[in-house]
Amino acid sequence: MEKQIMDMCDNTCDGTETDLSTVKQQMVDEHSAYELAELFKALSDPTRVKLIGALLVNELCVHDLSVLLEMGQSAISHQLRYLRNLRIVKRRKSGKTVYYSLDDSHIEQIFVLTLQHLKHE
Amino acid sequence: MEKQIMDMCDNTCDGTETDLSTVKQQMVDEHSAYELAELFKALSDPTRVKLIGALLVNELCVHDLSVLLEMGQSAISHQLRYLRNLRIVKRRKSGKTVYYSLDDSHIEQIFVLTLQHLKHE
DNA sequence: CTAACATATGAATACTTGCTCATATAATAA
DNA sequence: TTATTATATGAGCAAGTATTCATATGTTAG
C-alpha cells in the first residue's frame, strides 16, 4: 500500500522517457471518458443492439419488437426506456400502440460504421 | 404466460401494417448482434476508455498508465488483459517493462468518430 | 360501465463486472 | 545467491445489470 503511493509520486518508470504530463494534456479528459463510456454502454448489450438494428429498418411498436426479438414485452419495454433516456430512440403514440424510432443520427452512424467493419473482415 | 405464447404466434398487433418477416430479413442477425455488443462493451467502461484514449496519444507501459489514470497497477493490468483478449491493444516487451499500444484501427476510428460527435454538440 | 388490449414499471433475482488484495512470474541488479 | 522492479493473475467482494413476474396505467370496443 505504501509502496503504491510512492509509485504514484514517481513520474516515470525505469526505461521510459515518455513525458506523462504531455500525454495527460493530449488525452481524453475525465468527463469525456464518462460520456463516451455511457454512450457505448447503450450499444453493449445484444438486446439493445437488436432493437436498434430493427429500428434502423423501420419504425416499430413494442409488440412487434417483442415478436421480432422473440422476447417478453416487459424486457423490451425496459430496454426501450433505457434507450429513450439516452435519447437514442423516441416514441410516437397512436391510440393504444406506441411506435419507437431512432432519435440520434450519431448512434446510427456509429452503429452502421461498426457493422461494416465487422462484416468486411 | 399462455397469453405471451399466443402473442408470439400473431404476426402483427392491431393497427400495424408492418410486414415483420421483411423487417426480420433486413435487420442485423443474431451473430452480428452479439459481435457488435461485445465490441461496444469493450468501450463501455470509463477506465478502458481512458486507457484507449491514452494509447491513442502514445505507446505506454503499465506503470505509466497506472500513474496517468491514478489507479492501482492491478486494475490497469486486468483491463489491459481484457482489451488484449479482444485484440484492441497489443504489447511489446522490453526488459522488465511491457509497452502497450493500440492494435485495431477500427476501434480507433470508432473511438475518434464518437469523440468528435460528443464534442460538436 | 366492463372487458380486452398495449405498454409501463417496481420488485426480486440470477448473473455479470470492476476493483482490491495477496501472491506469482519474470527480468535485472547487487 | 538475494533483493528489487515490473507486470500478471486468481480469489473475493461490492456494485451493477438484464430478465421475469406481477401489477399498474392508459386506450379502445362493446
Descriptive notes:
Two copies of one chain form a homodimer. By secondary structure, chain A is mainly α. Chain A has a single domain (35-119), classed as Orthogonal Bundle (Arc Repressor Mutant, subunit A), CATH 1.10.10. Chain A contains seven helices and three strands. The first copy, chain A, has helices spanning 2-9, 20-26, 30-42, 46-57, 62-68, 73-85, 105-119; strands at 60-61, 89-94, 97-102. Chain A has a three-stranded antiparallel β-sheet with strand order 1-3-2. The longest helix of chain A is centred in the last third of the chain and has 15 residues, at 105-119. The first copy, chain A, starts with a helix and ends with a helix. Mean pLDDT of chain A is 88; it is low at 1-11. At the A-B interface, helix 1, helix 2, helix 3, helix 4 and strand 1 of A face helix 1, helix 2, helix 3, helix 4 and strand 1 of B. Chain B binds a DNA duplex (30 and 30 nucleotides) through helix 6.
| Helical run tally of chain A | 7
Task: Please tell me the CATH architecture of chain A by its name.
Answer: Orthogonal Bundle
Strand order of the largest sheet of chain A: 1-3-2
**Assembly annotation:** homodimer
* Structural class by helix and strand composition of chain A: mainly alpha
H/E topology pattern of chain A: HHHHEHHEEH
Distance between the termini of chain A: 45 Å
- Average the pLDDT over all residues of chain A and give the rounded result: 88
Q: Predict the CATH topology of chain A.
A: Arc Repressor Mutant, subunit A
Query: Could you give the count of β-strands of chain A?
Result: 3
